[in-house]
Design a protein that fits this description.
This protein is an all-alpha fold. Helices cover 79% and strands 0% of the residues. α11 runs antiparallel to α12 and α14 packs antiparallel against α15.
Length: 296
């Protein structure tokens, strides 16, 4: 017990004055809560309600027909296919980069951290233009790719590349502070006891970072599904071939097919809500396993 606490306990009037000085008045708390609720309603709940209303306004059969249309199915398949490729790529890179940065000291470490953060600083449209300059028909590698009949720009590989670039930081940035906080004593002890590097990773490092890793994968998945700007530049927007779900929604909306656009939007919104639910569940499991005040 500190001297200040003892003073407050021995003087109720002083303690009450201290609580009044450090606590916000009721009207301030009510105002802040009201502003937050109004902001959430205006910028989250209302748009979500508009999307759902527009999707189901003409009935479930129209919604299903819009989702089951060939171009919509192609966009859904392409989005899921790209996510299935991008997440393992970023998973491997994120774990390797986080392990190197958190566990070792080496020349160029700050440069590597800056490169990981680069997708946060560059506009997605600029990212798309960069890869067009690199792999387009008039780009640096364009003539060689054309001579070898390799197609990247205006094809699926370009979409995978730009989405992988845009989601690059999420897993690594989630793991770096976690690994730095945990230190490397457990890994060193495992190696000292004769375990190999792989055994140390699977039985020591991975269990310690599993919740952060899952959280990073969830964020990576959410960003990959919703990526628009860079994909719009490199995909060529070919219906049924290179249109992802966000691009297909834009095409439908520009063609005044509002119900179909809202129907596909509702599916993308549903995937986002599922992602948020999984994220919240993972956070709950993490808090349950490591409650506040736990020494571990």
């Amino acid at each position: 017990m500190t001297a200040q606490t003892a003073t407050f306990e021995g003087n109720p009037e002083l303690s009450a004055r201290w609580r009044r000085a450090t606590a916000e008045p009721a009207w301030v708390r009510l105002t802040l809560i009201t502003i937050a609720l109004v902001f959430i309603a205006a910028f989250l709940v209302l748009p979500l309600a508009v999307v759902l209303y527009g999707a189901f306004e003409q009935g479930l059969s129209v919604w299903w027909a819009s989702i089951n249309e060939p171009d919509a199915l192609a966009a859904i398949r392409l989005s899921l296919f790209v996510v299935a490729i991008v997440i393992p790529i970023n998973l491997v890179f994120g774990v390797a980069a986080a392990w190197a940065i958190a566990k070792f000291e080496f020349r160029g470490k700050s440069i590597l951290i800056s490169l990981i953060d680069m997708p946060f600083a560059i506009s997605p449209v600029v990212v798309g233009l960069i890869f067009v300059i690199l792999f387009g028909s008039q780009g640096w590698f364009g003539p060689w790719l054309a001579a070898n009949d390799i197609r990247i720009i205006f094809a699926v590989p370009a979409i995978v590349i730009v989405i992988a670039f845009g989601t690059l930081p999420f897993i690594a940035r989630e793991l770096i502070p976690l690994m730095q906080q945990q230190g490397k004593e457990e890994e060193e002890a495992s190696l000292t006891l004769g375990a190999s590097g792989w055994k140390t990773f699977w039985h020591v490092t991975l269990p310690n970072i599993k919740w952060g890793l899952i959280y990073g994968v969830i964020l990576c998945n959410a960003r990959a599904l919703g990526e628009f700007g860079a994909v719009a530049v490199v995909s060529g927007r070919i219906r049924g071939e290179t249109n992802t779900m966000p691009l297909h929604i834009e095409v439908l909306y520009n063609e005044y097919m509002f119900t179909a656009a809202f129907a596909v939007s509702s599916l993308l919104t549903g995937l986002a809500l599922v992602t948020i639910a999984i994220k919240s569940f993972v956070e709950w499991l993490d808090e349950r396993q490591h409650p506040a005040g736990n020494s571990q």
